[in-house]
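Example (one chain per record):
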Amino acid sequence: MTLRASRVILVTEIHPVNAPIYWLLSFVVTVKTLYIHPSCARFMRRRVEQIDTDDYFASREDSWAFRARTFRAWEAIAARLPREPWQRTFRGLCIDFSTKAKQELGRAFDDVCLLQEIRRRHASAACAVVVHSSRSAWLATHAAPSPCFDGDGMTRRLSQFHVACDRLWEGWLNGVVWGRLFAWLIGGLAARLRLTRRTLASYRYLYWCDNVNELHVSSEKRSFTWLMDGVRIRPDDLLVIVPNPSDPGVPSLRRELIGTPYRVGTFSELYQHLSSRHLWRAMADVLGAIGRGMIQPVPGAAHGMVSRYLASVVKFAPLLDHVQPACFLETDSSLGVEEPAVVYLDKLGIATVMYNISAMLVFYTHPGGCEQHDFLYAHLLASRLVCWNPQAKRLFERHPQDERLTMTVLGPTMAGDERVLTQERHVLRRTYLHREDAPRETFTYVAVFDLPPSPKPLARPRQTCPYTSPYTEEYTVRFLEDMVRVLHEVREIVLVYKPKRGHLMPQRFGKRFERYHRLVEQLKGHDRAVVVDEDLNPWVPIVTADVCISLPGSTPVCAGWHLGVPGFFHDPTGQLGPEQHPSIRAYITHNYEGLKALIRRLHGKEDEAPLNHRLREESVCDFIGVPPGLNGNAAFRNFLGVLGGMVPQAEAMAVGMEGRWAAAPEGVGAMRL
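Predicted structure:
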């Protein structure tokens, strides 16, 4: 193979094993990649250009039309993939990891198709070549024919080298995973020698706390404690697993747990409270995996993936043996990155549940009717999915799923204490907004919710799709600029700003960080504005508001509609077309003048009756859940009570219907619907 200075090499990922060769090549050719592993040396990262899809797709519609074509091609390929490479026997059970493999192989297919498209769109397309990864090469062997694997974009020798490096990297990562698991088991066995070490009890529910926003105990913040009502689900029914012990919120959580009845821990901590018998059995599983050759320094693509899947199963096995749970819970934060052990839990007869922590609105669609598709929504491992509304349910149904998956619509479920909805508004405002409640006829409280812009390539995590996003820095800043402007010009409102986690992280905003920071400081210094904590109980800003406003796709407006609180979406640059979502067209503003006019009308209560009328319509219920006003948190706990054998089915249905906010303050709840 002859390399010339005019050539461009397109590669999926650069990691520490292949980084040296691409660093050397970068002196004679241009090297571009979708992902750069953060452990690569900085001087090597500087020589490689990370791909920004905004440079190759003319618009979001163009990008999403391409994604839809790619996804349809993947559906055909996924149906042909063999199941045998992904099946293993563990403790006498045949476990099929093929669905988990499709989660990861789907992204590999997406990546190689994207690189091929970039090659075709590149300014020097004739000189651009695509280097295949280990997984895309496996797909090319087992899922051909497919156009994405054909053509002159494949550079055979360099691809072969890249595949070998990927296999070395996979072997290293698997060795780290198995070694860490072995160390945890040794630590657990050593801890059992201490007579003061208390043995873990049995729990009906295991909660996979993968959403860092919920690492709190206080009911005034986002917290996993909303899952327990003290009657149907008590603290001694739920064991919380923290997957990432290095998360910055873990130390403060440990301090909050002192003196509470909640049981939370990482695997290494929980192992110290398990029976020695179960730990020795898991140790035998690790040694057996080594004896069967499951840990190899240079594994093939399928073997390396299955080795990591089996390590996840062994990691969960002693905990499952000891705790004997009936149900395993995870949030949609795990989409596309679910623990492979979920397959094993399902095989044991343990109910596996994923629930949505947002309404998952799909606002930005192609004007020609092209539906948005995302590999993250496909091939779920959980056997049950709980959605906010029918629209979210249909989103998952448009993606290939395992036949075991059942979907249920229960209304809004948010990680906060929903009992605040039964308190008087003036009390809540005085408690959480730190101001006396002004007379209702004088001020209108406007709760504003934004979304942080999608990170640019260098800050993007590996599992995030690298396509262009509607939530750009400029879009987010323009939204907040409109809110600050309307605060100054409409003197009858109090603005309550609820930012998203990480809203002031410089890597989120890049060049516009200072501009955004100044806007937030203006709100903090204004006498008619309140900037609440980003970890605040999410029900609070909704229930204290007379009007909710958010960026299109942010879900607090839907939760407000569900409770009877008026609200609308503000599209600051007018990028939503009038043909998109006609059922709620009246509740989307596309410029500042429209925003200001609608706020003035809502302040005068002119739109109150039409809004409540539309909230009864089936088309709007599609966004807010059915039936409106139902206590979604209580309904979900009843749902879990049935799975855990704590609540009979008939009783759960009756309690769920009684969960309407009959005692809610004026302006909140089913009384206005």
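Caption: Confidence is low (pLDDT under 50) at residues 1-5, 654-673.
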